[in-house]
Amino acid sequence: MKVFIASIGMSKVGDLWDKSLVELALDAGFKALNKFNLKPDSLVIGNMFSGYACNQEHLGALIADSLGLTGISAYKVEAACSSGAAALASAYSRVKSGDSDVCLVIGVEKMRDMSSKKASNALAMAESAEFTQFFGANFISLNAMLTRYYMNELKVSREELAYFPLLAHKNAKNAEHAQFRREISLEDIKKAPIIADPLGLLECSPIGDGAASVLLVSERKAKEIGEDNLVEIIASSIATNRFSFYERNDMLRFEATERATNQALEQAKIKLDDIDFVEVHDAFPVVTALSLEAMGFVKKGEAPKLANQGFFDLKGELPICTFGGLKARGHPAGATGIYQACEAYLQLTYQAKSNQVEKAGIGMIHNVGGIDTTAIVHILKRNRA
C-alpha cells in the first residue's frame, strides 16, 4: 500500500503570544484539511512537552474534538525533539497497513510562554533525569562538549563549523514561515554572546512556537481524489543509540542516524546518490556535521570543509535545510519533524519559489531526539513526472 502526502499546513514559527497550543494546532490542521473535502479517520499529534509547558496532555482527543472530528482514532506521540517525525512514522504505518485511509498528522509546540530557565529544563528532559539532569548539564552544554571534542579530534575550526548556521539563515531569508528571515555574517557569530564554550548564541537553534500538519492518504484515496500532484513517502525508519552520547564507544559516530538512513534506503530501494536534498536536524553545527557524515554523504570530519565550498548550498551538490532548518526556520520541538515534511512537500511539488532545488525528485528528512539518541529518517518522492 502506497502512502501519499496530499496537502500541508504551517504556521509561521515565532513568538506567538496570542495563540494557545490548541489554537496553533487548529490553524495548521485546517490549512491541510481545506484543500480537499476529506474527513480524516485518524489523527496523530507530535508533541514533546505540552504537559510541562502548558499543563495539558490528552492532546489527541482534545485536538480531534476542537477540529470537529470527535469519534476518530486520535493520540499523541512523544520522542523528544523527534516527536514530529515519530508522529509521521506512526501515521505512515497506519495508512500503509490499511488501518487508515486519511490520517491527519499535526506537530505542535508552545515554548515561548516558558521562561528561559523552564525552556532549558524542558529540553533537558531528552536526557537522563537520574544522572545528566541531576548534575545540572543542560542540552546546550552537552552539545558544546561534543563540539569541542569534534573540533579537537578532527582538526576542525569553529569558523568552519559556523558555515552551517550562515547557510541556514541565508536559506530562511525568503521562507515565509521562518522565525528568522535574515542573513548573518561570520563576524556576527563571533561577536554573539557565548552560551556554552565554544557555542555562541547564533550557533544554537532557537526556541519558538509553531505548528505544522500533513494530510496522509492511501493509494486508494489518492486515486479517488484524482490529484496527481502528490508526494509519496517511500521509506520511514526509526533507530536508537546508547541513551547519552558520553556512554558510547565512539562519541563521534551517530549510529542511530546511520542505521535509520541505511534502513530507509533499503526500504526505498534507492542509493544515496538518488537523494536531491536533505532536511537535516541542524540543532547545532556539530550535529549537522556528524549527521551528514553518519548518513554517508561525506567522510568523517569533511562536512564543515565541504560546506564552506558550497557543497550544501541550494545550488550545490546536496542542498540541506532548504528553508532555514532548525537554526533559522526555528525549532518548536515537537513540530520540527512535520515542518521538515512540509518543506520537502513544497520542494517536490515545485512550490518552493526562490528556495526551489532544481529538478528535485527525491528528498530525505532527518529528525533527532536527544544527541542522536533517536533518529528518524523519511524519504519522499515526487509523484508527478
Please provide a written account of the structure:
The chain is an alpha/beta fold and 385 residues long. The protein has two domains: 3-114 and 208-231, Peroxisomal Thiolase, Chain A, domain 1; 134-206 and 233-382, 3-Layer(aba) Sandwich (Peroxisomal Thiolase, Chain A, domain 1). The chain has 15 helices and eleven strands. It has helices spanning 21-33, 50-54, 59-66, 83-97, 116-124, 139-154, 158-161, 163-172, 186-191, 219-225, 255-268, 285-295, 303-308, 325-328, 336-348; strands spanning 3-10, 42-46, 73-77, 102-109, 194-196, 199-200, 210-218, 231-240, 277-279, 362-369, 374-382. The strands form two sheets. It has a nine-stranded mixed beta sheet, sandwiched between helices. The protein has a two-stranded antiparallel ribbon with strand order 5-6. Strand 5 and strand 6 (199-200) form a beta hairpin. The longest helix has 16 residues, at 139-154.
Structure summary:
With 385 residues, the protein is α/β, with parallel strands linked by helices. The chain folds into 2 domains: 3-114 and 208-231, Peroxisomal Thiolase, Chain A, domain 1 (3-Layer(aba) Sandwich), CATH 3.40.47.10; 134-206 and 233-382, Thiolase/Chalcone synthase (Peroxisomal Thiolase, Chain A, domain 1, 3-Layer(aba) Sandwich), CATH 3.40.47. 37% of the residues lie in helices and 18% in strands.
